[in-house]
Structure formats: C-alpha cells, structure tokens
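agent: user wants the structure for Arginine--tRNA ligase from Megasphaera elsdenii DSM 20460. delegating to structure tool.
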Amino acid sequence: MEMKDLLKQGITEALNKAIAAGTLPAGDYPDVALEVPPQKEFGDFASNIAMQSVRVAHKAPRIIAQAIVDGMDYPWLDHAEIAGAGFINFFLKNDVIYDTLKQILAAGDAYGHAPLRQEDTIQVEYVSANPTGPLHVGHGRGAAYGSALVNLLRAAGYNVQAEYYINDAGNQMNNLAASVNARYLELLGKPAEIPENGYHGHDIIETAQAIIDQDGDKYLDMPEAERLELFKDRAYAEKLKALKRDLAHFNVHYDNWFSERTLHPDAIQAACKVLEERGKIYEKDGALWLKSTDYGDDKDRVVIRDNGVPTYLAADIAYHKNKYDRGFKKMINIWGADHHGYVARVKAAMAALGYDVDQLEVLLLQMVSLFRDGKPVKMSKRTGQAITLNELIEEVGTDAARYFFIMRSLDTQLDFDLDLAKSHSNENPVYYIQYAHARIYSIYRQAKEAGANLSMDWSDVKWDTLTNEYELELIKKMAAFPEEVQRAARERAPHRIAHFVHELAGMFHTFYNHCRIIQEDKDLEKARLALVTAVRITIANSLAILGVSAPEKM
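agent: tool returned. relaying tokens verbatim.
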C-alpha cells in the first residue's frame, strides 16, 4: 500500500475508534484529505479532517483532532502534532518511507500506473484539422496536449480511445481541389486564379508540381469538373498521408481515424430523422432548423440549408451521435478557443437527441505565441506563411516542442520562447529534466568503472543507511507520483506532470551536489544507487506520459 493510502486508512480507523468509544458522535464524516506541507518541519503529511468534521461532530476542531491522534498507535507512525486551529501534521517513520523505494524498484515502468479498468471508457478526440495543408503551431499545442492527456488517462487506469475526426467533406475539400487546379494551370503556363476561399500555401504548389512530374499535362484537356474531382482525391490522399506522418513524428498516435465522408448522407439523414421524431427540428424558409434555444443556445441553428445541403453542424450532430452510440462513458473533445461558441449548439443537439450531455466534455485550448529574441514571430522566413509544426520541430526538436506546449494549463495563453527551448541550460526545463535522467546513467558508468555491483538486485539493500534530508525528501517526492497521476487525470491537467518531474529533477540535482554516491561505504553506496534508480524510473515514467524522450546520454 502506498504511503498516503496507508495514512488515510489509519486516520479513518482512528476516527472510527473514537466513534466506537463515544468520544465522537456517529455521523457522515467527510473523506480524509491529505496534503504535503510546504515546510518539512510540519511533517510528511497534513490533514484538515478535524476542521472538516465540525458540522458532524459538533465539537471544536482541536478536540476532534486530539481524538483522532489518540487513536493512531501504528508502528509506521513516528508521531502526530496538532497545529493551529486543528490541522494534524503526521510524521512517518523512515521504514514506511523506504517502502516507497521498494515499490518503485519492483514496479519499474509500471510505477505510477493504475490497473486498467476496462469498463471506464473514455474517447479523446483532438487536433482534427482539415486535411488541406500542413499543421501549424496552434495544432501543435493541441497535438501535444491531447496525446499527453491520452497517456495520462491510460496511466490513471482508464480505457482510452484516441480519435482523429477527418474533415474530408464539404467546401474545404472543394476549395483544396480548386487551389491545386489553379496552381497546376499556372505551372503549365495557363491563366488561373486561386479561389477566394482557397489555399495559398507553398504545399499547394508542391502538390500541383507532383502531379505534373508524374503525369505531365495530360489533364489539361479533361473537363474541369472531372479534373477537380481527380485533384481533390489526389490532394486529399497526399495531405492526409503527410498529416499522419507529421503527427507520428511528433509522437502523436491515434487508435481511430474517423472520416466525415462516411456520415454523408445516411448518418446525417438518420440523425435528422430522430430529431424530427422528437419534435426538435422544424422547417423555416425552406431550411431545417434545430430548436437549440430549448437547451440554452442563443438562437436556433440551421441543420439542412434551403438547397438541401447539410451544414457543418449537421455533420457534427451525426458524428457525435455516432460517438454516443459507440457506448463511451465519457467523450472529451479538445478544440481551439475560437470554437467556444460552438460548444452550446453541439451540446444542445445531443440533449435534443436524448443523450446525457454531461458525458460530453469540451476542453478549449488557448492561443500560442512564438517569441524569438524577445519579439513575436508570426511568419515563416521560408514561405512567408504561418509557421508550421514541422518548422518548429526542425528548430527546437520534438521533445522541447512537446514539453513547452504541455507545461502550461490549456486554458492559459502560451508564450513559446524559441531561444529558451533550444538552449542547453538549466533555465530550459526540458533540458534540465533530461539531463537529470542522463546524469543517472553517467553515475552507472562511473559505478561500473569503480567496481560497484550494478546487478539491479536490491534485495539486500540496507535502507536505513539513507537518513539525510536530501535522500528522504527525494523519496517522499517520488511517493507522491501515483496520486499526482490520478489528480492530473481528474483535472485533465498534463501540465501537473510537467511541473512534478521538473521539481523532481531539481531535487535530484540538489541531492547529487550534496551526496557522494560512489564511495568506500558499500552499504550506503548500494542504497544510493537504488535511490537514483528509483529517481530514473520516476523521471522516465513522467516523461513517457508527456511523450518526451528520456535519454541516456546528452
């Protein structure tokens, strides 16, 4: 049992003893909450359970606290102190602290991971950018955050499916085809113009040139309508392949790629039929409207236009109906902040279909601003267009890009310092963390050269040789990792793991600067080798959640 769980169980047992003895009245007492005090002199853990129990016990907090402390006679508890208005500070014996090390070393890659709960299904849909061109840095934040959230939820024991919704139907695909067609004609010396809502990126020229390189001018004599359909399919296949390749290069992988095309027309018609049967859709001016104002939207929304063409909302209704019908307990959409107004109408549609809207959770990502030399960077030097995710990766690397995207809460604007992300200094958080991991492998190499036993068999370690504050604080920090994973998962907050591992790396560097590892006292040497191995495991497991590598050398 983990240190914190052991203490929570002990407090609950002590509370029940006090109730059984008549010291405290029976009642519905709150769950025990624990926190790590900001200063070590206040103990290993603190609880406000006494203050939270006043309404049930009808006694002063310090009296309740004393009743709990009196019942906590455990071999693993050194002592407990009542502080302030009724806080209880707990001081654990070192033996139970050492148990954390044993757990980490035994669990290895699984440390911090909860067992899979097959029934706790969550679908996470993220990025879902139109397959019409390369991903930009805004998509990069969504990709890093979304994939880290998937990793985090899986570590917390959820059964997660990651999905990409391919917007491969509608006007954007027609505009893609028209844009490629215009560039194709231009490259062959024919007059042409990019349509008003077309795509002007350099990648469109590359697509057109690739068609010419393969097939020459053979499509010039083809009727334009046929040529546009051909170019639409060619460009779509190329863009989707590039999109998948770029995401994989960024350590982003999906379990399912869902095509919007599969919703047209049957699934959309089926969704509209259900809405019609439930009286949630009506005809006006030749169009079909959803009664979204019945569910808190500011106005009703068109689902089918007067020309019979479905709106984007119609496809989204059919898509989300499909999600619900697949039976997920929870569905999480990660959208850009510019989709804020769209949340109400999608949830309104799900409510109109009779689904539980609380099962659908929409997280909104704020904007990313790039800075170089302290100045905003908006355009690519290479193309004059918005900076792509690939260009960012080329400049700072996948690891730095992912960490910087994840290290701030998704609901705050992110200022991305390109110079800092590239620097090999302690100010660069991802470098600082990875250096800690690599430093441990350096310790192994030094230990091997000194003739130390590196069998990784820790059964005979004399744990009680680890007694100084740097060692014990490291162990206590690592003990918090499993609960940090659970809390971060509940809060949908991968940045908590980024902060945790940065703090752990800092504590390790401090330990390293104060505690000699390779030394004449072989018992202490082996115990410290076991300690740094536990640190390595915890850092690596944290970075794995973030999708960041844990190098052995730097």
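agent: one observation worth passing along. The domain at 425-546 is CATH 1.10.730.10 (Isoleucyl-tRNA Synthetase; Domain 1).
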